[in-house]
Amino acid sequence: MIEVYTDGASSGNPGVSGAGVYIKASGNRFEYSIPLGEMTNHEAEFHAVIAALDICEKDFPNEILSFRSDSQAVVHAVDNNFTKNKTFLPLVERIQEKANQFPYFFIKWIPEKENGNADRLARKAIVRT
């Protein structure tokens, strides 16, 4: 099982944004800072999950994925495969489409204090842009 921690960050809301992805796999750690351009913080959180799924598709195909996010909005929308927010709806659909390529995909909410690595990487992505 692959543990994937994701976080999105924005400098302003909307503002320059970044995604952080921290992966634990087979005793190894992988870190990714991904600039996202201008968007809201919530959008950055969804894009962080999409970016992580892209990474897993390339580097960890056919693995069981256990995602963690400190965004209750993301976890709730992905768990329920539904959101009333028209901006987030296509992002939720992309996440579901990508997640369906894996044998099992789980996502759970974690407190912000347990997501420090992904947060650091998301903030780093903003600084780089």
Describe this structure in words.
This protein is α/β, with parallel strands linked by helices and 129 residues long. It has one domain: Nucleotidyltransferase, domain 5 (2-Layer Sandwich), CATH 3.30.420.10. It has four helices and five strands. It has helices at 41-59, 72-80, 89-99, 116-128; strands at 2-12, 15-25, 28-39, 64-69, 104-109. It has a five-stranded mixed beta sheet with strand order 3-2-1-4-5. β2 and β3 form a beta hairpin. α1 (41-59) packs parallel to α3. The chain is globular and about 35 Å long. The mean pLDDT is 96.
Layout of SSEs?
Elements: E1 2-12, E2 15-25, E3 28-39, H1 41-59, E4 64-69, H2 72-80, H3 89-99, E5 104-109, H4 116-128
Parallel strand pairs: 1-4, 4-5
Antiparallel strand pairs: 1-2, 2-3
Net shape: globular
List low-pLDDT spans.
none
| CATH architecture descriptor text | 2-Layer Sandwich
User: Which strand order spans the largest sheet, edge to edge or round the barrel?
Assistant: 3-2-1-4-5
The count of helical stretches stands at 4
Q: What's the domain count?
A: 1
At the fourth level of CATH, the homologous superfamily is Ribonuclease H-like superfamily/Ribonuclease H
Write the element-wise H/E pattern from the N-terminal end onward.
EEEHEHHEH
Structural class: alpha/beta
- In round numbers, the mean pLDDT is 96
The biggest sheet, with number of strands, parallel, antiparallel or mixed sense and barrel status, is: 5 strands, mixed
**Name of the CATH first level:** Alpha Beta
Strand tally, please? Answer: 5
The CATH topology label is: Nucleotidyltransferase, domain 5
What proportion of the residues form beta strands (DSSP E)? 35-45%
Gyration radius from CA atoms, angstroms: 13 Å
Distance between the termini: 32 Å
Question: Roughly how much helix do the residues carry, as a percent range?
Answer: 40-55%
